[in-house]
């Protein structure tokens, strides 16, 4: 998809990618991907002892946000961007259940670049799903998804090229 490739190139250049460390059980861990946090009003977003202050929307991000809002019928005031440089980069099992996202958050996830598998596992039942996220795809998580399911992007030796993921969110607790 040509438009997706163009978007990938723009965001790769334009976003303020950073390599951060987080603290998990008192241990310092380098996050295995690059990230950037954008949103309205310099909102702060905290997880695992790391606080990111939102940067103002770039014009490209603002355009994607508009398209995602039109498509989903939901509005978003922030976006966590992830850059997986290759198959070595990953995000481990988690739910997007931070208090600032509210009870049943809608999270809109745009994927660009390398195809990666988005895995889901139920917290109580022995149920697992794998959704291939192609370049240009939009995945919506809504309702009680975060209560019952965890998700991850596992490391893989097969992927040698980068992927950008944009997760649009609505921060409700300041
Ligand atoms: O890269 C993805 O598709 C998932 C990212 C994610 O789960 C997150 O940023 O919370
Ligand atoms: Fe997530």
UniProtKB/TrEMBL annotation:
<dbReference type="InterPro" id="IPR005123">
    <property type="entry name" value="Oxoglu/Fe-dep_dioxygenase_dom"/>
</dbReference>
<dbReference type="Pfam" id="PF13532">
    <property type="entry name" value="2OG-FeII_Oxy_2"/>
</dbReference>
<keyword id="KW-0223">Dioxygenase</keyword>
<dbReference type="InterPro" id="IPR037151">
    <property type="entry name" value="AlkB-like_sf"/>
</dbReference>
<keyword id="KW-0408">Iron</keyword>
<dbReference type="GO" id="GO:0006307">
    <property type="term" value="P:DNA alkylation repair"/>
</dbReference>
<keyword id="KW-0234">DNA repair</keyword>
<protein>
    <submittedName>
        <fullName>Alpha-ketoglutarate-dependent dioxygenase AlkB</fullName>
    </submittedName>
</protein>
<dbReference type="GO" id="GO:0051213">
    <property type="term" value="F:dioxygenase activity"/>
</dbReference>
<dbReference type="GO" id="GO:0016787">
    <property type="term" value="F:hydrolase activity"/>
</dbReference>
<keyword id="KW-0479">Metal-binding</keyword>
<dbReference type="GO" id="GO:0140097">
    <property type="term" value="F:catalytic activity, acting on DNA"/>
</dbReference>
<keyword id="KW-0560">Oxidoreductase</keyword>
<keyword id="KW-0460">Magnesium</keyword>
<feature type="domain" description="Fe2OG dioxygenase">
    <location>
        <begin position="75"/>
        <end position="172"/>
    </location>
</feature>
<dbReference type="GO" id="GO:0032451">
    <property type="term" value="F:demethylase activity"/>
</dbReference>
<keyword id="KW-0227">DNA damage</keyword>
<dbReference type="GO" id="GO:0046872">
    <property type="term" value="F:metal ion binding"/>
</dbReference>
<dbReference type="InterPro" id="IPR027450">
    <property type="entry name" value="AlkB-like"/>
</dbReference>
<dbReference type="InterPro" id="IPR032854">
    <property type="entry name" value="ALKBH3"/>
</dbReference>
<dbReference type="GO" id="GO:0016705">
    <property type="term" value="F:oxidoreductase activity, acting on paired donors, with incorporation or reduction of molecular oxygen"/>
</dbReference>
